[in-house]
Amino acid sequence: MYNKKVSLLLGGLALFIFTPLIHAQCAARFDKVEHIYDDFESYHALQQVDSKKELRISVINDESCQLQLVITSENQAQLKGQFQSVPYQMQSIQSQLVSTSTLKLSFTNSSTILSLLIPSGTPIKAGVYTDRLQMKLYDQGSKLLDEREYSIQENIVPRTSLSVLGYNTFSNTINLGELIPGKEYTMLPSLQVVTNSDIQLSVSSDNNGKLIHSLYRDKYAINYSLDLAGSWLELNNVSQHKFSYSGQTVYLLPLKIQLNDFERQAAGEYSDIIRFQISPLNY
Of the CATH numbers 2.60.120.1060, 3.10.290.10, 2.40.50.150, 2.60.40.3590, which one belongs to the domain with range 29-156? Predict the structure, then answer.
């Protein structure tokens, strides 16, 4: 009779010890990684705000779990491309930064938001850039529950603009004043090129490098040359110039005009139209 009571007591004690362990197990898993915002591809170095990419990471079966998400960048928090590597920042309001390339996040209502930022002013050449994020889900005991990879691929598109700065920039017309043989005219505006890619600048003259009389177009003309940022151009044909992007985003190209020697020209107005056109290369 005594032995039966002891066995019954021990059995009840064993049940009391192991039942809480069964209930404490966590079966959480990754559910979805959703792409909710991205303006990386429209980034340009002169913008005033950081460029951002946002991901929503959600889990399932996380009832009564205390979870921790560890995200590590394969490229050390850099977008790698053919021409350069672009550093970015990983941020979240529910995070702890372990290193520049590793972030620990917690969850609220079974999800968390991860933000990737490219700081404004970062010079980036147009092209395709990639990285891979390794996501690992742990329980409160640091047991690995699930893992997932997320690939990043961004195509930074070419962005090129051409504007006129400086002298007489409120008009597309430049008045040289009195035309003097052999004179060099320096009071001209400058071209400003803003680009994130290799570019080609084409320069052409409607009159093939001649200032032509407004009335006697077939009889009176004055030849001239155009200086573009220190290089004299002959305008009897289209002149093409290539600029290779090497981290410089803004190019300032001063202009000068020099008249050829001339004599016995009729008084009056002489004019020409110079056309500038830029286009990205190799994209």
Answer: 2.60.40.3590
Nearest-angstrom CA–CA distance, 211 and 133: 61
Helix ranges (DSSP H) in the chain = 2-23
Q: Is this structure's pTM higher than 0.85?
A: no
Asked if 155 and 38 count as a contact pair (C-beta separation under 8 A), the reply is no
Distance CA(57)–CA(111), nearest Å, equals 5
Question: pLDDT tens digits for the chain (283 residues)?
Answer: 444 443 333 344 443 444 444 445 899 999 999 999 999 998 988 889 999 999 999 999 998 899 999 999 999 999 999 889 999 999 988 777 777 789 999 999 999 999 999 999 999 999 999 999 999 999 999 999 999 999 999 999 898 999 988 766 666 788 899 999 999 999 899 999 999 999 999 999 999 999 999 999 999 999 999 999 999 998 999 999 888 888 888 889 999 999 999 998 999 999 999 999 999 986 5
